[in-house]
Amino acid sequence: MSEIDPSTHADPASAQRSRRLAFAEQELRLISSLVLLIGLGLFLALPFVLSIGSVVFLPVVTALVLTVILSPLADKLNGWGLPNALASLVSLLIFFAILLLALALILQPATVLFEDVPAMTEQVMLRFGELREQFAWVAQINEQLAELFDNDGEREVVLASPSLIEELAFATPSFVIEAVLTLLMAYFMVEARVRLRQRLLFGRSSFGTSIKAARVLREVQDRVAAYILTVGAINAVVGVVVALGAWALGVDAPVMWGGLAALLNFLPYIGPIVMVVLLSLFGIGTSETIFLGLVPAAAYLGLHTVEANVVTPSILGARFTMNPVVILITLSYFTWIWGVFGALLSVPILLMLTALFDHIGRPNLVGFIFGEPLFATEILTAERDPAAS
User: Fold this and answer.
1) Distance between CA atoms of 51 and 351, rounded to whole angstroms?
2) Cα–Cα distance between 18 and 24 in angstroms, integer?
3) Distance CA 21, CA 315 (A)
4) Where are the domains of the chain?
5) 12, 298 in Cβ contact below 8 A?
6) 384 burial type by CB count under 10 A (0-12 exposed, 13-18 middle, 19+ buried)
7) In terms of Cα–Cα distance, which of 310, 309, 308, 287 is closest to 297?
8) Which of the residue ranges 4-18, 119-133, 208-222, 234-248 has the most confident prediction, judged by mean pLDDT?
9) Is the pLDDT of residue 52 over 50?
10) At what angle do helices 54-79 and 84-114 cross, to 10 degrees?
């Protein structure tokens, strides 16, 4: 009897599997390209939509972030025997009291120092005038360049802008309305957290999907809440150290500077820079020399260097480590959309998105350019390895 070569029967199946694999790869790449284009379009169009509709979207996003932050506290109070509605209200009142206390520590001394701003401005100009005299040769060069490019026939028209009081008068009613809407939405979202968890667990057709959805919700909540609480505690310590340092250096209103340092430290990179600038201007405006005026700013810069590079990374660990470039992009993105409030919300939003991508998979943008799949998938792996199926 002649033996049958098994390769004659394996070749057609192998060729069919290769064609099916190539078709699956092309289909997956086409779908990935469409997803990438849609995501890019949303990324470019979203700022204009969110900026125009900031009255609607900003309170919603702020309430969502507050819900994620306050849900663990509400759960703790609920576990101590408080009803869900009362626990949600108490957690929101605790946050509101802390916020009012922080603002009172800053605004009350700031209003007193605001009266000394003209004198400090004059002092700063005097110090910089003295510094400019030491570089008189630079001024002479500027004068010569100005004579060369001088145009006497042109006139500059300056349009009158509304004063600070007028801007505050127009902005206060809308701010109060948005603040009330935000607090109301935050309360109802925190109060509805239990029902949301129950729907995620029991409202899915698949038990595995229910477990995964509940796990994603818990991961987002735990990560953002743990980050905010940990960073808040670190910033509170930084504020106390800055207040004690300002008191030791004889700086006016040390409590205000401590509270300002604690709040600005929530803004990565930008907040400490603003703090250094404010301390420099205030120090120069109240000191006899520029060198003495820069001492508070230099002391704060040294404290921030130790805190940002030693203390915070050792406490937070690798779980909350984020790419500085991604942080700056997110910070500038939401600052462009919503200003200061967008800057404060940027890091919590980034943490929520990071937690979501950790579960659903992060897009492989660089690899996609060179032919790799945009998202990790097991379909092609199973096709390549028939023994695994």
Assistant:
1) 21
2) 10
3) 47
4) 56-133+174-388
5) no
6) exposed
7) 287
8) 234-248
9) yes
10) 120
